[in-house]
Design goal:
Layout: H1 2-9, H2 12-24, H3 27-33, H4 38-52, E1 57-60, E2 63-66, H5 68-94, E3 100-106, H6 108-113, H7 115-125, E4 129-135, H8 138-146, E5 152-156, E6 166-179, E7 200-203, H9 208-219, E8 226-230, H10 233-241, E9 247-250, H11 251-258, E10 263-267, E11 274-281, H12 289-299
Parallel strand pairs: 3-4, 3-5, 7-8
Antiparallel strand pairs: 1-2, 5-11, 6-9, 6-10, 6-11
Keywords: DNA-binding, Transcription, Transcription regulation
InterPro entries: HTH-type_LysR_regulators, LysR_HTH_N, LysR_subst-bd, WH-like_DNA-bd_sf, WH_DNA-bd_sf
Protein name: DNA-binding transcriptional regulator, LysR family
């Protein structure tokens, strides 16, 4: 079968040459960059196409362009070369006392509000452990842990965790963000339905806050008047400051970004505004020793704001 043949016959040098041809545009420049004779480079590419059974480039007078098959290979080749480089860096650090890596996915709320201090304190206790943290929406966190992309994940508790073991990590409170002179700013608290007459600045469509506010608007029999999507809480605060609308964000995110901009926050009274962030793993019993260290650190006082 083709995939078994690839394992035996593909090599990293040829893949690196293939990527170089794409980036340089000609075989001559790519061969010079990779310090290989043009004839040897041409032979390698021809053998690669023979192994794969497809044409990877369209040869033109002024250069070489990828075919559709070439574009597919490019995506995988770049990822493979990146992973090899990353592997080398990680293995190299073991010679300097690093015991291991923990790969972690977390949603924006956890990264902005809690993880900076928690990971700092953990690193002070365990300087030999490195953490690779990536931000994803809550659904993406769950899928990444299921796929083995990460050892640990932190997401919103209202996310479908698809059977993954879970413990409470932290709790937060959602508030309505608005300019200080907004008509609702004098209120001490608000039901979400009372805000639906205003335009909204929303987070990106995959965020748990965005999905929850849209669901709450539908439950109230109305549509959320979304004026613009933004990628993060800092961008939301700037848009609200510019009178683009109001927004929903965690109280601590407001304290970090909104207060300094002269904005105002009013707590929501809806039950869903009192949220839990949860820690998920694929199989607690199969965690590596260093992943277990971080898991225990983050979950030992489950639900308490340290």
């Amino acid at each position: 079968m083709l995939h078994k043949s690839l394992v035996r016959r593909l090599d990293l040098i040829t893949l690196q040459l293939f990527v170089a041809v794409f980036e340089e545009g000609t075989l001559t420049r790519a061969a010079a960059r990779e310090a290989i004779a043009v004839s040897a480079a041409s032979k390698r590419l021809m053998e690669l196409e023979q192994v794969l059974g497809v044409s990877l480039f369209v040869r033109r007078a002024k250069g070489m362009d990828l075919t559709a098959a070439g574009e597919t290979l490019l995506h995988h080749a770049q990822q493979m070369l990146f992973n090899v480089e990353k592997m080398g860096l990680e293995l190299g650090e073991h010679s300097h006392g690093v015991r291991g890596y923990v790969r972690m996915l977390a949603n924006l709320s956890a990264i902005i509000q809690f993880l900076p201090e928690d990971l700092r304190d953990f690193s002070e206790l365990h300087p030999e452990v490195k953490t690779d943290l990536e931000e994803r929406p809550s659904n993406g966190v769950v899928q990444g842990v299921l796929d083995g992309v990460a050892d640990l994940g932190i997401c919103s508790s209202d996310t479908d965790t698809k059977g993954l073991p879970r413990v409470v990590y932290r709790r937060d409170k959602l508030v309505v963000l608005m300019p200080a002179d907004h008509p609702l700013a004098a209120r001490k608290s608000l039901a979400f339905a009372e805000t639906l007459g205003s335009d909204y600045v929303g987070l990106h469509s995959a965020s748990s806050i965005n999905m929850r506010t849209h669901a709450a608007a539908r439950e109230a029999g109305q549509m959320l008047r979304l004026r613009i999507h933004v990628p993060g809480f800092d961008a939301m605060c700037r848009m609200v400051q510019a009178n683009m609308g109001i927004g929903i964000l965690p109280q601590k995110a407001f304290e970090l970004f909104g207060r300094a901009l002269g904005l105002h926050a009013v707590p929501l009274t809806d039950d869903w505004s009192d949220r839990s962030l949860i820690l998920v793993v694929r199989d607690e019993a199969q965690l590596s020793p260093v992943s277990r260290l971080l898991f225990d650190y983050l979950s030992h006082s489950a639900g308490a704001d340290r």
